[in-house]
Model the fold of this input.
Amino acid sequence: MRLRRIVLGGFRAHGRSEIEFGDGVNLIFGPNGVGKTNILEAIHYLCLTKSFLAVQDQYVLNRDAEYFEVIGEFEGEQRAELSARTAFVPGEGKRIFINGAPLDRLADVVGMMPLVVFAPDDYVITAGGPEERRRFLNNILSQARPSYMEDLWVYRRALKQRNELLAQYQRLRMPPPDELLESWDNELARAGARVIWQRLDFLRNFDRYLENAYATMAHVVERPSITYSTSIDVSDDVDAAGVESRFGRRINERRRRDTDLGRTGDGPHRDELVFELNGMDVRRFASQGQHRTFGMALKLAQYFYLHDRLDETPILLLDDIFDHLDAGRTEAVLELLNSDRIGQSILTSTRSQPFTEQLDFDGDRNRLLEIRERGRAPVRVSS
Done:
C-alpha cells in the first residue's frame, strides 16, 4: 500500500495542506511546532480511524475550524486505487468514507490500509503498564484478523454489561440474580475465549519475527521472547474449545469475589504480555537502551508480520525517532528503509541530516519535504 496524496483541512495546526508522497522514503523536516507530527497523525486517522497520540477527536480540531477532514489517495497491490476520507463535526461525530461511500462501522476500515508507527512514546510498551502491551497486541491483531476486532468488541460489550450489573447490586449490598449474571457470564466466556485463543495463536508465530527484528536493531546477541500471562492454564497448547471451557470455569469460580468487588477481575482485559531478554524481565531489569531497542524491534516485527499476513504492504511512519538512536542504529534503520524489504515510509525530523548523507533524494522515489512555517504544507526540496 502506498499513499500518493493527502489533504488536511482544519486538522491540528493545518488550516489547509496538501502533500504528495513518493514510493520510498519521504522525509518531512522542519523546526519543532510547525505541524510535522500532525501529518503522520492524519495518516493514522485514515488508516486506523484515530490518532496514535491517544487523544479525543475534538482536541484534533483546529481552533479556527468548524470541522476537520482528512482525504487520502492510496494505491495498493490488491486495490489499484483507493480514496479514503475521514471527517469529524463536533456534536455529530466522525465518519469514514471509502471511494465516496460511507462505512456503517468505523472498524471496517482497519486492516484495509495497514499501517505501523514508530514513535518516541513506544518506550511505554516495554516500560509502562500492562494496558500498553495489550494495546500493542490489539493493534496488530485488529489489522491482521477482522474476526479478532469483532470478538474484542463483543467481549468488551459483555464486560461492560456484567460490570454494570455487578456494580448495581454491590450498591444494593446484595448479589445479583443468578439468571441475570449467567447470561453475561456465558457471553463473556465465549467472546473472551476467542480473544485469548487468537492472542495465543498469534504469539506462536510472532516470536520468529521478533527475533529477526531484534537482531537487525541490536549490536549484541540477545534472545528476545514474549510470554502471554493469563488467569487460566494454557500451558498445554489447549484449543479454542478448551480455552472457553477453562475461562468459563474461572469466571464461575471467581463469581463471589467479583460480586464483592463490583467488577470483573479476570479475563483478557487484565491479561499481560511478558517481554524477556535472555530470560530477563525487560520491564524490571532492562536498561534504557534495551527498552528502546526492544520497542523498535516490536514495531519492526509488527511490520513484517503484517507484510506476510496481509495482501497489502504496510505503510511505515517514523515520528522523530532518530534523536533517540545512536549512530549505529540510525545507520541500520536507514539501510533497512532504503532496501526492498520496506515499502513506503514517511519520516519526521527537525533536520535533514543524516538522511541526505545516506539516502538519495534526487529522484521521485525518495522525497525531501520541508515545513518552514506552522501549519503550512511541506515544500519539496532537492538534497
User: Anything to note?
Assistant: The CA atoms of residues 64 and 160 lie 37 Å apart.
